[in-house]
């Protein structure tokens, strides 16, 4: 049993780039409820953008300062993107400079609170004293002021306490592709996306018993991923490049990465799938809370479009924080002293703060390989599917939302669609009608000022972007936005994640016509669709 008094309190922040705005918004709500929260927190732990948040808090910044940073300087930073994949998308020297402006040369060992920032060093080979090329293998890096004793050194544990806070925080966020490395250090996601369990281990090593430790993890949004593809016979090529399945919910992970890589996403996103919160919960029980609302889709780390920013703030403002507030009330007071017995349990609120893992599509679902056909059903209360109007064989015929036909109907083919992968633009698909015309769904090039109608046309190179589509999950799993590749010429192109995408929408209150409309997560019903194999008569 520990002889150290009181409770040891941890707030841990995970990685996620601009999605740190979600974390800052949640932190603001906790802080508004208890202004002593940050002063009474014993340790800040962080990875990547979470390391930047921890660093800012060590520099006496407030949650409001963090929100202002993410909605101000961070947006400007991410919009100044270098699109050349042969060089970093952004300058790591700018990140380091901003951190030095806060901490100057203050070392991790001299931080005003206990701290843990995580990174990964890629190693090197250099001459030793005998001029022999000697490798230094890559290794995970902990930057902490909680290691440094003789016992730690004998156990091979190094907290790298002499590292400046600015260098440690910048190193933790040095995601390859996004930023260059710093002193050979890259993003803490290669250590672990969520440093909470490592923080708990440091507290235990410092002499605290598990029943003295309380921790809150503030996430950047749980984004469910899945592979709809049958991976039974995949070789290296498919694991590296995928197999062109439009229902696979994986995206290019690295900035300026041209196509998604399943094995890379598995490696870097695996620890984002609630693994560390589950382990932390097993260790601490009711003394642990994870606040991490599910997001409807992948939001890139450098996304600056208004829909993404609004969505992050909305989820941060509405996620249930009841359990976290109870935990703070019971364990964050400096006057609370442990009795050596099991700590008081926190009453569970009706809505748990930790979301359940999303259930992925079942393996028995039809895999949309070449030749597979689907009804594309609108989310509205009336059963309507995308339909070539009047079963017209004319180029330019409208695509409308119309009552679903039975498979026994001889004219049903004008409601069936096939995904055809684009060779020229991997990750995008043509949606070809089953009518036999080889026409594909096309966003018409209207110049009348009205929203562009959705039509069918022959494939044409000069309007290819208007004929290519991909799927974006909505708030409700199983429904998708159908996003068009085309964007208006006045959309900023420096940062490809800075615009609001165009998706198919239906004027459900007026007509059956389908148009290209701006994606809106809060009003998704007019623009959300599910996909039904022909055998499904629902």
Rg (C-alpha, Å): 26 Å
Q: Helical proportion?
A: 10-25%
Q: Based on Cα principal axes, name the global outline.
A: elongated
Strand content: 15-25%
The SS-based structural class is alpha+beta
Oligomer: single chain
Number of strands: 21
Query: How many distinct helices?
Result: 14
**Contiguous uncertain segments of 5+ residues:** 336-366
Which sheet architecture does the biggest sheet show?
Answer: 7 strands, mixed
Distance between the termini: 61 Å
Overall pLDDT level: 88
Task: Describe this protein's structure.
With 538 residues, the chain is an alpha+beta fold. It has 14 helices and 21 strands. The strands form six sheets. Strands 1, 2, 3, 6, 7, 8 and 9 form a seven-stranded mixed sheet that branches. It has a four-stranded antiparallel sheet with strand order 14-13-10-21, with no helix packed on it. Strands 17-18-19-20 form a four-stranded antiparallel sheet, with no helix packed on it. A hairpin with a 7-residue loop joins strand 13 (417-421) and strand 14 (429-433). Mean pLDDT is 88; it is low at 336-366.
């Amino acid at each position: 049993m520990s002889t150290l008094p009181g409770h040891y309190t941890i707030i841990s922040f995970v990685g996620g780039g601009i999605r740190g705005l979600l974390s800052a918004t949640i932190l603001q709500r906790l802080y508004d409820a208890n202004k002593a929260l940050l002063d009474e927190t014993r340790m800040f732990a962080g990875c990547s953008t979470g390391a930047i948040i921890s660093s800012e808090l060590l520099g006496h910044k407030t949650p409001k300062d963090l929100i202002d940073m993410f909605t101000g300087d961070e947006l400007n930073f991410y919009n100044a993107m270098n699109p050349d994949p042969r060089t970093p998308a952004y300058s790591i020297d700018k990140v380091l400079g901003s951190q030095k402006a806060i901490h100057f040369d203050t070392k991790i060992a001299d931080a005003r609170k206990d701290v843990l920032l995580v990174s990964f060093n890629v190693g090197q080979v250099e001459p030793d004293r005998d001029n022999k090329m000697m490798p230094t293998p890559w290794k995970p890096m902990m930057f902490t002021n909680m290691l440094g004793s003789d016992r730690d050194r004998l156990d091979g544990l190094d907290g790298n306490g002499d590292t400046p806070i600015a260098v440690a925080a910048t190193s933790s966020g040095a995601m390859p592709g996004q930023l260059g490395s710093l002193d050979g250090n890259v993003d803490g996601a290669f250590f672990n996306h969520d440093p909470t369990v490592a923080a708990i281990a440091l507290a235990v090593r410092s002499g605290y018993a598990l029943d003295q430790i309380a921790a809150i993890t503030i996430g950047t949004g749980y984004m469910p991923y899945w592979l709809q593809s049958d991976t039974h016979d995949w070789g290296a090529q498919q694991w590296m490049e995928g197999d062109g399945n439009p229902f696979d919910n994986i995206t290019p992970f690295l900035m300026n990465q041209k196509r998604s890589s399943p094995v890379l996403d598995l490696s870097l996103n695996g620890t984002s799938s609630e693994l560390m919160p589950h382990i932390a919960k097993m260790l601490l029980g009711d003394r642990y809370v994870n606040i991490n609302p599910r997001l409807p889709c992948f939001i890139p780390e450098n996304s600056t479009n208004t829909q993404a920013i609004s969505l992050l703030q909305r989820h941060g403002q509405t996620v249930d924080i009841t359990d976290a507030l109870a935990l703070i009330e019971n364990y964050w007071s400096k006057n609370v002293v442990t009795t050596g017995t099991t700590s008081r349990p926190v009453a569970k609120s009706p809505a748990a703060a930790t979301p359940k893992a999303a259930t992925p599509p079942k393996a028995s679902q039809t895999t949309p390989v070449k030749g597979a056909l689907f009804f594309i059903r609108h989310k509205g209360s009336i059963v309507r599917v995308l339909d070539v109007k009047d079963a017209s064989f004319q180029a330019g015929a409208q695509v409308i939302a119309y009552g679903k036909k039975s498979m026994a109907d001889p004219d049903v083919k004008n409601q069936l669609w096939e995904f055809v992968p684009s060779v020229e633009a991997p990750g995008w698909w043509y949606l070809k009608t089953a009518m036999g015309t080889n026409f594909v769904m096309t966003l018409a090039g209207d110049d009348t000022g009205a929203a562009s109608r959705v039509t069918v046309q022959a494939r044409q190179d000069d309007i290819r972007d208007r004929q290519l589509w991909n799927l974006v999950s909505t708030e409700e799993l199983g429904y998708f936005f159908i996003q068009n590749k085309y964007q208006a010429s006045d959309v900023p192109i420096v940062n490809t994640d800075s615009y609001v995408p165009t998706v198919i929408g239906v004027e459900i209150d007026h007509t059956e016509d389908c148009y290209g409309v701006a994606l809106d997560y809060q009003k998704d019903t007019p623009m959300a669709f599910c996909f039904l194999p022909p055998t499904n008569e629902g």
